[in-house]
């Protein structure tokens, strides 16, 4: 039986960093993790049309900063910035009651190349599948769009009762190369679920952007000092 590993988790500390930046222990750690997970799920679910790429959460002793990377910032910001204020109030009422409104910072940032974001591709696939567009057509269109964006490889997997068939199955489409075992390979990964009249359709996307060879010079200097 195959054992699958999340490509992002596998590369944490190597070429990728954590989306939550804070330190806690004990029960406060559990509470903060729950808040982070619920905030991300809520934003990705409710702001699907805006194309949420990632949500970074930074905590200090008395403040919390939420950075939302999106393909369409205008949808979240709204007219005159009223959308940001409403979203901040909603997040405070639902998840962050232990913070005051003035202690919550909400930053909306635009994604430079949304075609290379696996999370945005998954959200687009979900919307198309729920509109009953044939899944093969959706997969081919999205792979072409990702390749035109500059990706070196892309893989899309869709599972479930495809086209309403009685037996669930998995369909995969791969273009280029996707080296999942190479730690220096910059691979973006995301998954989601499309809810249709036939049931849930699972969607997974891998996007290979190239290799990262940059080294942390501070670590090299530290090593020289130690050896000296």
Topology record:
Layout: H1 7-10, E1 20-21, H2 27-46, E2 52-59, E3 64-70, H3 73-77, H4 82-94, E4 104-110, H5 118-130, H6 135-148, E5 153-160, E6 169-176, E7 185-196, E8 199-211, H7 217-227
Parallel strand pairs: 1-2, 3-4
Antiparallel strand pairs: 2-3, 5-6, 5-8, 7-8
Describe this structure in words.
It is globular, with a radius of gyration of 20 Å. Helices cover 35% and strands 29% of the residues. Helix 5 (118-130) runs antiparallel to helix 6. By secondary structure, the protein is α/β, with parallel strands linked by helices. The strands form 2 sheets. Strands 1-2-3-4 form a 4-stranded mixed beta sheet. Strands 6-5-8-7 form a 4-stranded antiparallel beta sheet, with helices on one face.
Short description:
This protein has 228 residues and is α/β, with parallel strands linked by helices. The chain is built from seven helices and eight strands; from the N terminus they run αβαββααβααββββα. Helix 2 links the parallel strand 1 and strand 2.
Key traits:
8 strands, Ribosomal protein S3 C-terminal domain, globular, four-stranded mixed β-sheet, 228 residues, 2 domains, 29% strand
